[in-house]
Write a structure and sequence with these properties.
Structural class of chain A: mainly alpha
Structural class of chain B: alpha+beta
Family (chain A): Belongs to the adaptor complexes large subunit family.
CATH class of the largest domain in chain B: Alpha Beta
Subcellular location (chain A): Endomembrane system; Golgi apparatus
Strand order of the largest sheet of chain B: 2-1-5-4-3
Shape of chain B: globular
Subunit structure (chain A): Adaptor protein complex 3 (AP-3) is a heterotetramer.
Helix content of chain A: 55-70%
Distance between the termini of chain B: 39 Å
Strand content of chain A: under 5%
Keywords (chain A): Golgi apparatus, Membrane, Protein transport, Repeat, Transport
Helix content of chain B: 40-55%
Distance between the termini of chain A: 78 Å
Oligomer: heterodimer
Protein name (chain A): AP-3 complex subunit delta
Number of helices of chain B: 8
């Protein structure tokens, strides 16, 4: 439709104006009718825009621009018409054209090349408004070609007597620099001159100049150190808050590089902080001081005072910024946070989620090994009463803080493991994956915590209600694995067996179910081993484990400690008649009856593991039952076929699994002939069919709670106390026993382990009063060692390199080294390079490609020569200037290398050949 | 592509100066030039203000000015996300929202939300002052400015914004200076 010819006279006469279009859009309700109207208008525009009458064309373009910017209609096809309008002699048309160009053009549009000459013409125009239009457009759509071709014109404008033009030319310059770095050489000197401009007329020029320097300095602060005196003058003399804020930002960058400068600047900044009425300026001063000048005690004290004022303010925005300020202070001056902890803790229950998040970050910054227990207790209280989203935010930050640097801050691992168990029971907990990882990770790293880990795992496994919540499945998987792997610490293996085989496990996805079944296998082999070969006991096998453990070394005393611990825990559970003939037979029946249906499972993983378990169980059942009948020769249990097999299996399982370093894969030599880089994209098509059913079955299991256990739902929601919940879960289990009598063993009285530490969510915190919590944290934040924590921290197996998390603390150290290296670089290099006010030459030498470095000239090069260059003819002019700049760049490279060498040392240092903490 | 340029040359020769020939020479070699441009890494320095949006209570955009290039699709999703995030907030919540790599500073005036996306280290309070200045300037020009004024005079709103902000940097803070060109234009037409 649009393709057929230009518009008729009628079209031009009765053209809809922009107002008509807007009214029309408003008449149609958003949705289908509006979009039909828009597409109809678009057809009209397509016709009208071809008109030779510029007025018609201009209105069409106006409408199109409107649709483009508010209704996201593509207008790249009209680019040429926009270019055409910019060449009109009428200002209104020109403006329409430029507006369309700046709103819609992108660097890849081909008609951009046509715009160059129009821009040049307008930049040289006598009408300052035309110049301003061109500059505004250029500042948005600038490409390297534009920048190269138009640099001379902008250079001329920099000396314009009209500040209206001058300020825009300066603001435009930043865009030109970034697109065409060679322009720096031409224009930099004039830009610097503008820093000296003062007076009412030039206030805006100064603002624009400082704005440009602020952006440049953020990218590469070192180069602008020589300009520090200029900035200092502005900092002291200027009364314009916009300018001051930008100058402060520049000093925040420079101050990090040059300590002597910081010393000089800190006084005037404090003056501004004391005197200024404008909150924006005060906050900028605070931010500058606490992020860059934190070594100056008096300045920091003043800043913290101001932060406190912000925190106490009724204005929410100021309170938010106050919290942000505290967060910046925290790394170097933790006392400031501790001083304001009441406000921080109170902010945790603020209505505004952003404020809550900032407060949470602050609380996390306060955590240390002394107060981690109390802070976590408080936070769990908050998590329970928060909305699901924030609750998970709290849990996530707790998990990441506690696991930082291989659980650096955790001393009492028993407490931490039970905390993880508590987290799993919080409704809405969606951090299953992380908790799963940490449970297993701690199990592998910390030997002493294993009995407690098994207890926590048992509490989770035994609760049928948890199986209904898909978010917890990952945690249950970890609990099942832990219970199977460390079954020797369990007080009642039979109970765990029951829990692993309870009917509701069919709610689990197959991948996790197979973990359950494999754990069953481990538990079964443990039971059989204990029954058939009691004299070989777990003690001996444990010692053996310690001996054969490769790669880990324990000190002698620790070795004894762990052994004793194992021995006591083992003997306590081993006395009595736990493994009687009858109980073993019952276990075997349970295993066989509940697993037999699964031999037909569609999931290979489940099927295979079930068959493994059943193979062992059936063999054992045959032999033990036959002996049972004869009732006499229980003595030669040792000679049974089962015993031999169970011994073998147990030996296999008793080898300790350890943590795996992050880079373990890299150390595996690649076998000859194996092509790792081979394209595996066609695997997707093959695997697609295979993986689908797994996902489906997972989503089928999604419903959170089955209607059959209503009370278990409420149980889970009211969960406050681990003891109560454990009791409840046992009663639920009893209910199951009643229902499926066949599957369950006669229950023996449940011996509940009493924990020596307070449960994470104690009912005392149930009332959740903010005041109470504040008081609690007040106690907790007092820096003293709690007497009951005096017991030594257990051994945490730590790998020498490549543990899971890249250690952030060390990283910042490296950065510091880099920065200090840079400072030295500047200090040493300055004498050689900073003669004359010549920073542009230095800048260019650093940031551009090699050939440019070779042809480099200093900024004093004449305008004529730069024009010459701007046409792309790089004449080899080897004058002394270029020689000099070569030397400079050479010098820099050398110092770079030196800095690099320094980093190498820093990296090597933390590698300590000790595996222990 | 080359053919179309030649056509363009024939049709519009009169409206362009002689410089045009120079451009055409570039165009013929254009395919090479263009490829080089498109492959070029995005070098652009990021200035403080990244975009200014005006959105009404219903979530309809009333003005959108970006200081960095985003495709239409990116703009649409960004505006959608921001509107959903900010409009859901009430008066008792603070005016700063973090979104992707931006920090959004916003302020509500009657039915209209003014949203400014800035870099993370930009001074939030200064941006709030900037928003207020923008509204005051519009108010002075339109007299009791409302959503409809901005709708029907989008060009003028853009014009004011262009006077105040260039390349993401605030260059003019005097209301009289900002409005001078517009008044001149109104007088002449």
């Amino acid at each position: 439709m649009s393709g057929t010819g230009g518009p008729s006279l009628i079209d031009s006469l009765f053209q809809r104006t922009l107002d008509d279009l807007i009214k029309g859009i408003r008449l149609h309700i958003p949705g289908a009718s509006q979009s039909t109207f828009i597409s109809k208008s678009l057809d009209e525009i397509r016709r009208e825009i071809k008109s030779t009458d510029l007025q018609t064309k201009s209105i069409a373009l106006q409408k199109l621009t409107y649709l483009h910017s508010l209704h996201h209609i593509d207008m790249s096809w009209a680019a040429f018409h926009a270019v055409e309008l910019t060449s009109s002699s009428s200002f209104i048309h020109k403006k329409t054209g430029y507006l369309a160009a700046s709103l819609s053009f992108r660097s890849s549009i081909d008609v951009l090349l046509l715009l160059t000459n129009q821009l040049r013409k307008d930049l040289g125009s006598n009408n300052q408004h035309e110049v301003s239009l061109a500059l505004e457009c250029l500042s948005v759509i600038c490409t390297p070609d534009f920048a190269r071709d138009l640099t001379p014109d902008i250079f001329t404008l920099l000396t314009s007597s009209k500040s209206f033009i001058k300020k825009k030319a300066i603001a435009c310059l930043l865009m030109v620099f970034s697109q065409y770095p060679d322009a720096v050489r031409v224009c930099f000197k004039r830009l610097v001159e503008n820093l000296e401009s003062a007076g009412d007329n030039n206030a805006q020029v100064l603002a624009a100049t400082v704005g440009v320097f602020c952006e440049l300095a953020t990218k590469e602060p070192r180069s602008y150190l020589p300009l520090a005196p200029e900035f200092y003058r502005i900092l002291v003399e200027s009364r314009n808050n916009w300018v001051l804020i930008k100058v402060l930002k520049i000093f925040a960058q420079l101050g990090k590089l040059e300590p002597r400068l910081a010393k000089k600047v800190v006084e005037p900044i404090c003056d501004h902080m004391k005197r200024s009425e404008a909150k924006s300026l005060v906050f900028e001063c605070v931010r500058t001081v606490v992020s860059s000048f934190y070594e100056y005690e008096f300045a920091v004290k003043l800043a913290v005072e101001k932060i406190r004022e912000f925190l106490m303010d009724s204005d929410l925005n100021l309170r938010y910024l106050g919290l942000q300020g505290l967060l910046l202070v925290a790394p170097h001056h933790l006392w400031a946070v501790l001083e304001n902890k009441e406000v921080v803790i109170k902010s945790l229950s603020d209505v505004d989620r952003n404020i809550k998040l900032e407060a949470l970050r602050l609380v996390m910054s306060m955590v240390s090994d002394d107060n981690v227990v109390e802070i976590c207790r408080v936070l769990i209280g908050y998590a329970l009463k928060s909305d699901p989203e924030f609750c998970n935010e709290i849990l996530r930050s707790m998990l990441s803080t506690c696991s930082r640097n291989v659980y650096e801050i955790i001393i009492d691992f028993d407490w931490y493991v039970s905390l993880l168990g508590e987290m799993a029971r919080i409704p809405h907990c969606q951090n299953g994956e992380e908790i799963e990882f940490q449970l297993i990770d701690i199990g592998m790293r910390v030997k002493d915590v294993r009995p407690e880990l098994v207890r926590v795992g048992r509490d989770l496994l035994i609760d049928p209600a948890l199986l209904g919540n898909p978010f917890i499945h990952r945690i249950l998987s970890a609990a099942a694995w832990v219970s199977g792997e460390y079954i020797q610490f369990s007080r009642n293996p039979f109970e765990i067996m029951e829990a692993l085989l309870q009917p509701r496990t069919n709610l689990l996805p197959p991948s996790i179910r197979s973990v359950y079944i494999h754990s069953t296998f481990k538990v079964l082999s443990f039971c059989l081993h204990s029954f058939l070969l009691p004299e070989e006991g777990v003690n001996s096998s444990l010692i053996k484990v310690d001996d054969i453990e490769p790669g880990f070394t324990y000190s002698e005393s620790e070795q004894e400690f762990t052994e004793n611990d194992h021995a006591t825990s083992y003997s306590s559970m081993h006395k009595g008649d736990t493994f009687t003939q009858e109980s073993i037979v019952n276990v075997l029946t349970l295993v066989i009856t509940s697993l037999t249906p699964l031999t037909e499972s569609h999931d290979v993983e489940i099927q295979e593991r079930v068959r493994n378990v059943l193979g062992l169980a059936q063999l054992a059942q045959e032999e033990i039952c036959s002996h049972h009948d004869q009732k006499e020769k229980m003595v030669d249990k040792v000679d049974l076929k089962t015993s031999t097999i169970v011994r073998l299996i147990n030996e296999a399982f008793s080898e300790d699994l350890g943590p795996i370093p992050f880079n373990a894969q890299e150390r595996v030599p690649i076998p000859n002939g194996l092509v790792l880089e081979d394209n595996l994209s066609n695997l997707d098509s093959i695997c697609a069919d295979v993986q689908l059913p797994i996902n489906e079955s997972f989503s089928l299991i999604k419903p959170t709670f089955l209607p059959t256990d209503g009370d278990s739902t409420s149980n889970q929601q009211n969960e406050e106390d681990s003891e109560v919940s454990a009791a409840e879960s046992t009663s639920l289990l009893a209910e199951h026993r009643k229902r499926h009598g066949l599957f369950y063993l006669p229950s023996d009285t449940n011996k509940k382990a009493s924990s020596s530490f307070p449960p994470a969510n104690d009912p005392k915190q149930g009332d959740n009063d903010v005041e109470d919590l504040v008081k609690l944290t007040e106690e907790s934040l007092v820096l003293k060692r709690k007497p009951n924590l005096s017991r030594p921290r257990p051994v945490v197996v730590k790998l020498d390199e490549g543990d899971r998390l890249p250690i952030t603390v060390k990283k910042t150290d490296e950065n510091d080294d880099l920065i200090s290296g840079a400072v030295r670089d500047v200090l040493l290099g300055n004498e050689a390079t900073s003669h004359s006010n010549n920073p542009s030459g230095r800048r260019k030498g650093k940031s551009h490609s090699k050939d440019k470095v070779e042809n480099s000239e200093t900024s004093s090069s004449s305008k004529r020569r730069s024009k010459h260059r701007s046409h792309g003819k790089n004449v080899e002019e080897k004058d002394e200037n270029s020689e000099k700049s070569k030397q400079k760049s050479g010098g820099r490279h050398k110092s770079r290398r030196r800095a690099d060498g320094h980093i190498d040392v820093a990296v090597q240092k933390p590698v300590i050949p000790d595996f222990l903490l | 592509m080359h053919a179309s340029f030649v056509f363009v040359l024939v049709k519009y020769r009169c409206s362009f100066s002689l410089y045009f020939l120079h451009s055409i020479v570039l165009c013929v070699g254009g395919s090479i030039v263009l490829r080089r441009i498109s492959r070029r890494r995005e070098l652009r320095l990021k200035m403080g203000i990244r975009f200014v949006l005006m959105v009404n209570k219903q979530g309809q955009t009333r003005l959108a000015q970006y200081y960095e290039y985003l495709t239409l699709e990116e703009r649409r999703t960004l505006e959608g996300e921001i509107v959903r995030k900010c409009l859901a907030r009430n008066e008792q919540q603070c005016s700063f929202v973090e979104h992707r790599t931006y920090k959004i500073v916003y302020r509500r005036y009657a039915s209209l939300f003014f949203l400014v996306g800035v870099d993370n280290d930009e001074n939030e309070l200064a941006i709030l002052e900037f928003i207020h200045l923008l509204v005051e300037t519009m108010d002075r020009h339109f007299g009791n400015v409302c959503e409809l004024d901005i709708m029907f005079h989008l060009e003028k709103a853009h014009f004011m914004l262009e006077e105040m902000v260039m390349n993401g940097c605030i260059v003019e803070t005097s209301k009289a200076n900002i409005l001078a060109p517009i008044q001149l234009m109104d007088k002449s037409s």
